């Protein structure tokens, strides 16, 4: 049975089938981007074990096709099994080992990247300081305890908990949060608005009325979903208050409970840093006489007292800042305000693996080529030495016999 298992996973037919399934997955996943958007398609098709199908209105779904992680894992298993079964350790095949090792490292590195890479951005104007970056694709409900004048205590509730509805409890909070209604996407509306979606309403701390209506989910790259939720805060003494949290609301709202003051807001999820970054100057240069960008650059001041860092850094296109295990790229700017820059922040623990994989594959190809070249040269030299030396035969003058001579001889 073990032999059959090894034969199956080391089979070349399995390799061909998996590559064919991968091509089909890329095709259907690319088509799905039109409907659900790039990031959702990546999560559903390429960052999953299976592609699921869910009937309209149903609360269940079934797997219908292998996902990217499953196909990648099977291809990796197939490569390792084939290598163990077919290749023996010898000097002649050292190049093959380097090539296969590079391919294995490339697959493992990509898998680690999918699991651990974090992408976010920092958006700030000249003179502003940030100690956090944000991921606009992920939303959190931030509950902030502002009772202590020295620092704020932040509690983060991911969007997935809000989408499920029901009651959310945390032992560190003196109240529970009931999600009465949650819209994954919403638009500002009024009581007489022509919006056809379901509407929710509440008032801000200053008494301003707020209305929001449910909106269809967007899948375009230059737009994002703006969620809204109706929340009810419940303590042991009863309902503390009920308000709306929305990404449309810029300022956090306030609630009092157990003698402490809390603020809450829906916002992009934040990743806090142990250092501060201040934007000193942002440059947006254009080609003369055209609106075409020529250069983006942000001059920042990095302040990290823990490590004694106090320095100015210029971040520009193709010249990022690498610090604290993260890379800061010049990503863009606010078209409405030339003093606002956007830096992309990438944390990828496996960032070096593609370079190492390419080096291994290149070294393997070079080694294999040189070994074949040397072997070919030795065979050609040995063949020349083995050939016998032939002496040239003496030239013999042909004898021409005429017919008259033949008669005389007869």
pLDDT average, as an integer? Answer: 86
Q: What structural class do the secondary elements suggest? A: alpha+beta
Helix and strand run = HHHEEHHEEEHEEEEEEEEEEEEEEHH
Quaternary structure: single chain
Over the alpha carbons, how many angstroms does the gyration radius reach? 35 Å
In terms of topology, how is this protein built?
Layout: H1 2-9, H2 12-36, H3 38-46, E1 50-53, E2 62-66, H4 68-86, H5 94-116, E3 118-125, E4 129-145, E5 153-158, H6 159-164, E6 166-168, E7 176-183, E8 186-188, E9 199-203, E10 209-214, E11 228-235, E12 238-246, E13 253-257, E14 260-286, E15 293-304, E16 309-316, E17 321-323, E18 326-334, E19 337-347, H7 353-386, H8 403-409
Question: How is this structure best summarized?
Answer:
With 410 residues, the protein is α+β, with helices and mostly antiparallel strands.
Please tell me about this protein's structure.
The chain is an alpha+beta fold and 410 residues long. It has three domains: 2-86, no CATH class; 120-129 and 272-347, no CATH class; 137-268, no CATH class. The protein has eight helices and 19 strands. The chain has helices at residues 2-9, 12-36, 38-46, 68-86, 94-116, 159-164, 353-386, 403-409, and strands at 50-53, 62-66, 118-125, 129-145, 153-158, 166-168, 176-183, 186-188, 199-203, 209-214, 228-235, 238-246, 253-257, 260-286, 293-304, 309-316, 321-323, 326-334, 337-347. The strands form five sheets. Strands 4, 5, 13, 14, 15 and 16 form a six-stranded antiparallel sheet that branches. A hairpin with a 5-residue loop joins β9 (199-203) and β10. The model has no long low-confidence stretch (mean pLDDT 86).
């Amino acid at each position: 049975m073990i032999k059959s298992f090894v034969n199956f996973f080391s089979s070349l037919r399995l390799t061909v089938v998996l590559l064919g399934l991968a091509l089909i997955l890329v095709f259907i996943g690319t088509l799905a981007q039109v409907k659900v958007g790039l990031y959702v398609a990546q999560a559903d098709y390429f960052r999953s074990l299976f592609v699921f199908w869910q009937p309209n209105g149903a609360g269940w779904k079934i797997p219908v096709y292998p996902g990217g992680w499953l196909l990648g894992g099977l291809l990796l298993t197939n490569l390792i099994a084939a290598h163990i079964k077919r290749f023996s350790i010898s000097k002649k095949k050292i190049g093959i080992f380097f090539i296969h090792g590079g391919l294995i490292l490339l697959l493992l590195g990509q898998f680690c990247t999918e699991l651990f890479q974090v992408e976010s951005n920092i958006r700030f104007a000249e003179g502003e300081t940030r100690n956090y970056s944000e991921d606009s694709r992920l939303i959190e409900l931030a509950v902030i305890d502002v009772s202590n004048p020295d620092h704020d205590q932040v509690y983060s509730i991911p969007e997935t908990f809000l989408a499920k509805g029901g009651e959310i409890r945390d032992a560190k909070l003196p109240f529970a949060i009931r999600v009465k209604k949650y819209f994954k996407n919403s638009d500002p509306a009024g009581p007489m608005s022509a919006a056809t979606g379901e509407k929710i309403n509440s008032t801000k701390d200053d008494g301003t009325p707020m209305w929001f209506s449910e909106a269809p989910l967007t899948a375009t790259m230059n737009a994002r979903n703006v969620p809204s939720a109706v929340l009810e805060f419940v303590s042991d003494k009863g309902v503390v208050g009920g308000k709306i949290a929305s990404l449309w609301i810029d300022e956090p709202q306030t609630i009092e409970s157990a003698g402490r003051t809390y603020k809450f807001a829906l916002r992009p999820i934040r990743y806090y840093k142990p250092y501060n970054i201040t934007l000193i100057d942002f440059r947006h240069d254009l080609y003369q006489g055209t609106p075409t960008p020529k250069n983006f650059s942000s001059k920042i001041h990095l302040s990290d007292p823990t490590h004694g860092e106090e320095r100015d850094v210029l971040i520009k296109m193709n010249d990022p800042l690498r610090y604290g295990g993260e890379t800061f790229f010049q990503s863009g700017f606010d078209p409405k305000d030339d003093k606002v820059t956007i830096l992309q922040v990438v944390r990828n623990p496996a960032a070096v693996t593609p370079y190492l994989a390419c080096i291994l594959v290149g070294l393997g190809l070079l080694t294999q080529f040189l070994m074949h070249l040397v072997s070919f040269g030795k065979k050609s030299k040995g063949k020349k030495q083995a050939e016998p030396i032939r002496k040239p035969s003496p030239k013999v003058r042909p004898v021409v016999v005429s017919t008259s001579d033949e008669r005389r001889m007869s």
